[in-house]
Amino acid sequence: MNQDVIGKTVYKTSGKPFKCGSKLATVSGVVDHPITGNPAYIIKEDGTTVEARMCKVFAPITLDEAIAHAVEQSGVKTQCQLEHMQLAEWLKELKQFRVSSGA
To answer: Do the strands 9-12 and 25-32 form a parallel or antiparallel pair, or are they unpaired?
Structure first.
């Protein structure tokens, strides 16, 4: 089993929250799932065991990647895409602010 994931933040690929209520959680250990026997993560925040195949390691993205994603998703004018267009504009403004303020 991959012990490298210990201490990393994970999320459920289903989009559902962990038992602690959060959609992000920290892995405190790697074990065999007590029911299925499959590789599983022990969740630090609530002590539960979740099968590893149900989770992915959270990888933060850069501001430029967030802008590119929002622009890419804003092609056709569904409600979600309109929201991505607005998000892209806000992220561009944030980037300009950071560049001009040296943050």
So the answer is: antiparallel
- 33: its two tokens: 């799932």
Between CA 11 and CA 84, with CA 16 as vertex, the angle to 5 degrees is 80
- The dihedral through the CA atoms of 91, 92, 95, 97 has a sign that is negative
d(Cα 12, Cα 32) in Å, to the nearest integer? 18
Could you tell me if 28 and 5 are in contact, meaning their C-beta atoms sit under 8 angstroms apart?
no
User: What's the pLDDT at 56?
Assistant: 94
What angle do helix axes 79-101 and 63-72 make, rounded to 10 degrees? 150
High-pLDDT (> 70) share of the chain, %? 94
